[in-house]
Amino acid sequence: MGRRILMYFTVFGIAMWFFGNLYEAIVIGPNIAGDSKEQLRAFQQFTEVTNPMYYYVPLTLIAAVTLIVWFVRTPRKAPEKLSLLLACVAEIMAIVLSVYVIAKLNMTLYFGSLGETPQELHRLALQWNVLNLVRVALTAVALLFAMRALRLVWQAWARHPASAV
To answer: Which residue intervals of 36-117 are DSSP H helices?
Structure first.
């Protein structure tokens, strides 16, 4: 039962991160690509009380840890092992990219004083949009491979119901 919860939570957490990044790419990204300073000021005021970061960051990191635990606890010859490895690689790459995006771009664009020139803010906003699309792609790859691993586990359980405990 514990392994099932681990697997389902992992896939849910990766899916949540993927759809969160996709939402940002569709809704937030285009809004900051135009008149960046005014749009960013409006976003900062909108997220003054609550911030999506408090929701996404903990769950994203927990999902990454559970993915790694799932990978480590899976026997080497299990059919889902390669899918889990590829999901882990994509997830770790997405996290490394996110650390850069948060430290170098978000802290200026979403939490900074916006004292940079409009041209500099526009350049940072465009860089954020491009890197967020890369992050969407990486989380999509992680999600696809995690879901493939889950499907392989389900197929193994269907062949050997006694091992499903």
So the answer is: 36-46, 53-73, 81-100, 107-109
